[in-house]
Design a protein that fits this description.
The chain is an all-beta fold. Helices cover 0% and strands 42% of the residues. The relative contact order is 0.24.
Length: 142
């Protein structure tokens, strides 16, 4: 019997971030801290490479005034471990390369975007996996 690929993800450390009202963030995308906001916990934005915070672990829709449950809320960000990151199926990263993401926080092939760093180190792509028709990569974050 096959085991779920989600079981391959190993979260060593996670932190909490705040998602602004007008922002929708997707799960398994790389996020960064909005330094301009200066909130506690920190406000999250989609990362376009460079110094990043970690990988968002759930979908967070934008605020819908008709639904109280979409109000500004907290999100879990995995910051260390072997983490799943959504990948661009047309431009997949290869194993043992530094993680690069496009402007949507999605992993792409080396040389097509900006390299991600977390605490000054580059996360490394370890494996390509397909989950429910979505291309993902397992990435080693220190």
């Amino acid at each position: 019997m096959a085991t779920p690929v989600y079981g391959k993800q190993y979260i060593r450390f996670a932190e909490t971030g705040l998602v602004p009202d007008g922002t929708a963030l997707n799960q398994f995308r790389v996020v960064k801290i909005d330094d301009a906001a200066g909130t506690e916990p920190p406000t999250l934005l989609i990362s376009d490479g460079g110094e990043s915070f970690g990988v968002l672990q759930q979908d967070v829709p934008a605020v819908d005034p008709d639904k109280a449950t979409t109000g500004q809320r907290l999100a879990t960000v995995a910051t260390s471990g072997l983490l799943l990151v959504e990948a661009d199926a047309a431009s997949k990263p290869t194993q043992n390369t530094a993680l690069e993401v496009n402007s949507s926080g999605v992993a792409v092939a080396t040389g097509s975007a900006t390299t991600v760093t977390v605490n000054g180190t580059s996360p490394i792509v370890r494996q390509q996996v397909m989950i429910g028709g979505v291309m993902m990569v397992l990435v080693s974050f220190n």
